[in-house]
Each structure stands twice: as structure tokens, then as C-alpha cells.
Amino acid sequence: MCTNAGESCQISSSDILSKGVRRYHVAPVLCQRAKVAMSHFEPNEYINYEMLEKNINIVHKRLDRPLTLSEKIVYGHLDDPVKQDIERGKTYLRLRPDRVAMQDATAQMAMLQFISSGLPKVAVPSTIHCDHLIEAQLGAEKDLRRAKDVNQEVYNFLATAGAKYGVGFWKPGSGIIHQIILENYAYPGVLLIGTDSHTPNGGGLGGICIGVGGADAVDVMAGIPWELKCPKVIGIKLTGELSGWSSPKDVILKVAGILTVKGGTGAIIEYHGPGVDSISCTGMATICNMGAEIGATTSLFPYNHRMKKYLSKTGRAEIAALADEFQAHLVPDAGCEYDQLVEINLSELKPHINGPFTPDLAHPVADVGAVAEKEGWPVDIRVGLIGSCTNSSYEDMGRAAAVAKQALAHGLKCKSQFTVTPGSEQIRATIERDGYAGILRDVGGVVLANACGPCIGQWDRKDTKKGEKNTIVTSYNRNFTGRNDANPETHAFVTSPEIVTALAIAGTLKFNPEMDFLTGADGKKFKLEAPDADELPTLEFDPGQDTYQHPPKDRSGQHVDVSPTSQRLQLLEPFDKWDGKDLEDMLILIKVKGKCTTDHISAAGPWLKFRGHLDNISNNLLIGAINIENGKANSVRNALTQEFGPVPDTARYYKENGIKWVVVGDENYGEGSSREHAALEPRHLGGRAIITKSFARIHETNLKKQGLLPLTFADPADYNKIHPVDKLSIVGLADFAPGKPLKCIIKHPNGGQETIMLNHTFNETQIEWFQAGSALNRMKEMQQH
User: Fold this and answer.
1) Catalytic residue among 22, 272, 478, 600
2) Does the bond joining 356 to the residue before it have cis omega, within 30 degrees of 0?
3) Which of 402, 347, 401 shows the shortest CA–CA distance to 531?
4) Which of the residues 131, 143, 360, 396 is marked catalytic?
5) pLDDT at res. 606
6) Distance between CA atoms of residues 204 and 96, nearest Å
7) 615 carries an active-site annotation
8) What is the mean pLDDT of residues 219-244?
9) Is the pLDDT of residue 621 over 70?
10) Active site includes 96?
């Protein structure tokens, strides 16, 4: 019997470990301490390891070989493990995820699509997290107050939609979606999908957590099996152990340098080996989080004592006990085979810093100053920024504070501006209580709201002008051109929080904390010692303010209102169905040169406020992409007027005149964020196909969901045969079939023609999406039958 806060409760082993099914009862069944962490689950929610075990055993028997951990969890969630074709890298799997999570920027469109489906309630546990719409400006309290005022209409929509359709709602100020998931919802063996590309953060707790577009989330919330191309598995064997200035962030920075931004495409990254045990649970989450930058479907670690410790400290000891019982299914089989194997000796790993402009340009911290001088990158650091969903754990903040404390002891503060973003309200409250926040403020830091902030471009930066060349150093995950502050001349580097803190104190990229000395206020030189901090607080976590809204038991009186005159929200109209004809004489809206991320296709920052209004946000379509014809961004030729103008205006002109158009792209088109707006916008403005050398996984799926044709050159050299002034015809659509290439006829202005072949990855279900006009249209057709 446990007595706490005036309540008594009894937890029996039979309640907790009955046939591997752990049900979460909302108070007062659990003791008060557990109740705080567990109260965000709904009464009918449970972990069913028994079903996972049953499915794994079926697949084991069928495949007759050892399984990787990734395979165990993925195949353990198959809709039909008996009949499902399973071939890594080839077949499409039909899966049953346990849970859906949506951040507020993508949740708007996801919930609008769910409303359009006509269904009364979500079929799986789902949550909305308000973290993307808070702009970093003056500091946590003022920024949060301003965000609540500016975004009131959107927050009200999400809260009422959640209440009406049975979705939990985390209010603004709660924290970043991925930190909230790690603290509350992730667990070993879970299959969770989230409408954000950094959802793999949950792999730090041994789950398969995958970033998707909103339309995928709608499928799962509607109770439809979710399709995923059977992933390959890249094994990363860790030996040795981390020590000194080396951190978990350095593992993924090193991996990114090895595999590059597309090296993980179509694969799950599975870490294993004796080195795993030297990494904290939140450190594993950091590594999995940034796996999104190498294109991986997701990343994960095997269940171990570090995860058990974290589960216990976050009020989930019962889950840890259950995971212990089923541990054989939460680690890879001995002798399992990987499609690719990389080995990293953690004992030899040095602190890294990656950038600028791409997260896979890796440098040892010791070398980056010399490289910067050679390349002409600014070495003076304007701003150091720590936090984000990648590095905002208690341990991260503790290690940064350990560095800052040494500087303060010698009378120093940061030479650079310095900002701190706690990952959640729980982290904020705990680092305030334990003194870390005070130390970081004393060294010159400004503590921002528990939100994404500058990491996603929500930063009202005042210290530089657009076009001014400068350097910032962050503990974030992504550093594409203009990503953080919309300035294409900002050279952004990513590294660990402790290295960011050290560099912000020194004010220059030329400082190597392992070797170099600082000069204290007394004129004496000193060297920073490698930081040491607890991975978890000695006391319990302080939960801070309660910011969670349960969906009500009685939803009958709930209403969701969208004003027809709103500039922030817009109900969706169905896209038109395929007319049964080939796509003839399409104009080329833009032929993109080089890297084209989802930030280039649908910018974030100030555009986030239109994420719930498709027509308004379509005014940012491809404004960051570089036009090969003139080397400029947001300047394309209108084939009808021959005048150059903005990309969205030109697309609207074609749409108004009934002209279909295509985009031609380069390698890894659509890498980066999971934002489906990058697929919705071209469809809304009349686009029909995107033809590239290769696609990033999430974006390719998003395009299919919205009824577009993502196609790749059978011969990548054919990219050079197409000129922006050509017309393209895609023929053979009447016989559109899985594995069968489509023919493309290129018509040049001089009357000449060339024929090339285009490949695709459509399966039969996805072809039905195209024919119906979108996956949502197809869902409605199936409901009517």
C-alpha cells in the first residue's frame, strides 16, 4: 500500500503484468507520484506486449532467421503477419501503429483532413502539442503571452477539435512535442507516428517512432492500416565509451558525416554493441532525433538499464518492469544481419561540429576554426543557442551549466549572445529548482519559452540584417540556408550544448576547449575542464504547471468553428479526380538547381501562421528554390507572358488559365521537415507531377497522398535534357501499374522531341490515391461502399 498526498492506492503485480498487457488507469488507481506522469493516458489505453510477442513469433517462423530489433518492432505491428509479404527495401507493409502525435503547425492540416473524413472519433490514442507557433523574441514569459494572443484562433481550433474528436491537447508552454513524448508516451517496442520529422527522438526509449505527413496521421486516426515500404536496416555498432568533451551529439554528427543527408533513406538506423551502455537514455534520444538529417526512416536503441532508469524517474517503473519481462523481444537477435554496418569506437570519438548550410558537413571541433578561415566563413560567433528537441534534456542543461559555472568562477560571461530553450515544462521547472537555469542566465543566457523557437525559424532576430554574413552555433539538428533566421548569409553550425556554451564564452570558432586557454577577469589563463553532470535529477522531476487537456468523456456538446473569413484557417475542398487521360503538354513551373528541402518548397518562420489556411500558405510555394534558368530564387519565366515573376504567382496564373504544370528537381528532393504543405501547395496550385533524380522518403509519400506523381529519372542524366522552356507529356497512365515505368515526351520549342523513361514507387493502393485525386478522396469512396 502506498500513501501520498492524502490518497491511498494499491498496485498489485497482477494489475501490472497480466499476460503482458499493462493498462493505464487514470487516477486514483495509481499512487500520486505515478499518477502525475501517467494521467496523460486515456482509460482504455494499454501496452500489449503479448500481441507484439505473438506477431514476432509468427514472422520468426515464416522467415526462419534471426531478426534485427527494428524488424521485431515493425513486424510485430503488422496488420496481417501471416500473409504479409516481407522483403526489406521492396514490399509495402500494412501496419497498426499504437499512437499518433501531432505538433500544432502540422496538426492544423491533419485535423482539417480528419474533419473532412466525416469520422466521429480517432481510432487510436492521439495528441496535439503546441510548440511551433511561439516566436523567440524577448524571453519565455513575454514570448508565451504574445503567442497565446497572436495564435488564439488556432489554439482554440486545435483545442476544440481535440475535444470533439478525442485527441489530447498539450497547451502552449507545455514543451516540444518530442520531449513530451519521451517523458510521457514513448516506451520500448512502441510503434508511434508523428507529424514531425524528428519523431524518431522516441527511439531513445527503444521504440519505432516515425515522422510522417498529416495525411498518414489521418489514416491511422481513422483506423486504416498504415503503409510503409519495408525498411532496410543499417546497423551501427558502438564500442568503447564516451568520455571528456565527447557527447551523444558527436555520435550522430559523426554518422551524418559518414552517411550524408541521403545515406539513410529507406532504412532504419539500429544502434547496438557494448558502447550503447555508456550513453544515457536522453543521449540516445539525441542520436535518434538527428537521424532524420541523414534521411533515415527512424533510428533506435535496444532496451537496456539506462532506459529502465529513465522510465522509473519519469513515473513509469511499471512499464520498465513489463519491458524487463519481455526483454528478449526488445533487443536484436544474435546473428541478425544488417544491410550495411558501420562501426564507431566511442573512446576515439572527438567533439564534432557540422556545417554550415548542411548537417552532414562534419568537422572535429579542433579543426573547424582553421577550415572556416580557409573557406572564408566568419569565425566570430554572433549567437550561441542551446536547447531544441535534439538537446534539451536535464543532462544537456547540466553539462552546459557545468561549463558556464567554470567561466563565472573566473569572472567571465559569454562574448556571444546566448539563448537557452528548455525542452519541456518539466525540464524548465526542474532546472530552475536545481539552479542550472540561474547559472545559464548569469553567464549571459536568455531563457526562451518551452518551444521550438529559433530551431525552426521562429526567431525575431535583431542583431543582424538580412544578407549580412555571420556565424551562429547551435545545439539544434538542422542548419539549411536561412533555416533559423531567414538570412541566407547566416552560417549555422550544429554541435553539442556544452560545446555551444564553450564557444559562446570564447566568441570564436577558433577556440578548442580541449586544448585552448581562456583569460579570466584577473588576467590569468585557465582551461575549461570537461563537463560532468547527472543524467537525471537526484530528486524527482518537478512537473511544473499542468498544461494538458484531456478529451472529455462526453463529446456530444463539442463544436469546432472555422470562420469563412479567417486568414489562419480554411476548411478543405476535395482535389479533382484524375480524368483518365494522359498528362499532355505540361509547362515546367521551375527546374530546380541543387538542394531543395521542404524549407525551400514551403518556408517556415513567418509562414507558420498560415499552416491551417491552404490558399494563403500557398503563397510561399518554392520561393526558396533556385531556378536553374537564371540562378535566382523566386523568379521564374511565365511561359505565356514571357515575363519573370514569383513562383506562386506564376503557378496561380497557370491554374487560372487551366494549364497543368510540373516541377523538375535534383537529388534528395524534399529532404528535411515532414511538412505536407510542401505537397499540398503544388497540388492546390495546379501541379500534377514532380520529376527528380531522387526523393526524400516522407516528401515522396506526401506527394502521393495528395494525388501528385512523384517520378524519378530512369537515367539521372536525363535531368540535363529538360530545359525550363520545354513542355512535358506523361503518357501511359491508363496502364499505370506497380513497377512499370512511365514514358515522358519532352517537346522543345524548336519542334524537336525526346522520349525518356520515368520510374516510380507506387503500389496498387497508391495508384488508387492518384486516380481518386488524393488518399483522402479514396478514403471517402471506400466509406461510401
Assistant:
1) 478
2) yes
3) 402
4) 131
5) 85
6) 21
7) no
8) 96
9) yes
10) no
Q: In what order do the strands lie in the sheet with 191-194?
A: 208-211, 191-194, 99-103, 126-129, 168-170, 548-549
pLDDT digits (tens, 9 = 90+) for 292-344: 999 999 999 999 999 999 999 999 999 999 999 999 999 999 999 999 999 99
HSE, CB side, 13 Å, CA atoms: give it for residue 36. 17
Tell me which of 99, 129, 132, 491 is the catalytic residue. Answer: 132
161, 118 contact by CB (below 8 A): no
424 assigned to active site: no
Catalytic residue of the set 99, 637, 675, 677: 675
pLDDT at 332: 98
Q: In Å, what is the CA distance from 627 to each residue of 600, 632, 662?
A: 12, 5, 14
Contacts 24+ apart (CB under 8 A), 370-373: 370/510, 372/471, 372/509, 372/510, 373/510
Annotation marks residue 674 as catalytic: no
Q: Is 79 tagged catalytic?
A: no
Segment 698-702 shows an average pLDDT of 93
Decide if 708 contacts 683 (C-beta within 8 A).
yes
Return the H-helix or E-strand segment holding 3.
Answer: strand 2-4
196, 219, 250, 599: the catalytic one is: 196
Inter-residue contact 459 to 449 (CB < 8 Å)? no
Q: Out of 70, 299, 388, 673, which one is annotated catalytic?
A: 673
Q: Write out the three cell numbers for 248.
A: 551523444
Check residue 3 and give its pLDDT.
29
Q: What is the pLDDT of residue 608?
A: 87
Q: Say if strands 417-421 and 381-387 run parallel, antiparallel, or are unpaired.
A: parallel
- The closest of 529, 495, 532 to 515, measured between CA atoms, is 529
Which grid cell sits at 113?
A: 483532413
Alpha carbon distance 305, 236 (integer Å): 20
